Amino acid sequence: MSHDFLSFFTAWMAAPGRVGAIAPSGTALAELITRDITPETGPILELGPGTGAFTYQLLKRGVRQQDLTLVEYGSDFMRLLQLRFPGARVLWMDASRLAPERLYRDAPVGAVISGLPLLNMSPRKVISIVSGAFGYLRPGGAFYQFTYGMRCPVPRPILDRLGLRATLVDRAILNVPPAAVYRLTRRPQSRFITHDAATAASSNVSRDASKQKTERDCIPAV
Ligand SMILES: C[S@@+](CC[C@H](N)C(=O)[O-])C[C@H]1O[C@@H](n2cnc3c(N)ncnc32)[C@H](O)[C@@H]1O
Fold this sequence. Notes:
Layout: H1 2-14, H2 16-19, H3 27-33, E1 44-47, H4 53-60, E2 68-72, H5 75-84, E3 89-92, H6 98-101, E4 109-114, H7 123-134, E5 137-147, H8 156-162, E6 164-172, E7 179-186, H9 195-201, E8 218-220
Helix pairs in contact: 3-4, 7-9
The site of S-adenosylmethionine has 22 residues, from helix 2, helix 4 and strand 2.
């Protein structure tokens, strides 16, 4: 929708680092990042939905609006999402506060879909977001993240610290710019990330963890 391009561009002009893209994601990327989702996935937490490019695709896949929690920091995007998805829970908040806000009782979430610009964030913030999200993910649940970068945007030291592994789902070369989607899951035998652990994790991280990124962070899925 041309209106969405304008909303995005205006938001990007005001806060380029936070918005992280000059235009909403295209259909190829929206289809890819939601590929594993079915109505049986249950509650879904979407981070940084913007104008709702991924949200629309989730609904197309049969997800009920009542199963959606949308966490968005941009106030204009948040109001637009409330209008577009009146049955969803739309929260105007910083995704790095997932753990302290206690969005769910226990861990019922089947999938997290993230459009957040993680590459523009500090390691501390990435840890808060990822650990906070995993605190709500049920066993077997997955966190899906897209990136315009060549590697997984969650660096290896952070994956190690949180007991996670990342696999490349695929690349959406038709997206402008081309993007990749990664699936983050718990490693076998890794300790379950609780709310308390998620809160603690955000307070003790080396600032230079992001310098230690390696391609080994992301194991090709095939
Ligand atoms: C690259 S855009 C992706 C938007 C949409 N998912 C898409 O693919 O078209 C990043 C989105 O994340 C939001 N965002 C950035 N930092 C955030 C944060 N800390 N908490 C919540 N939302 C955030 C921005 O406002 C923007 O809507």
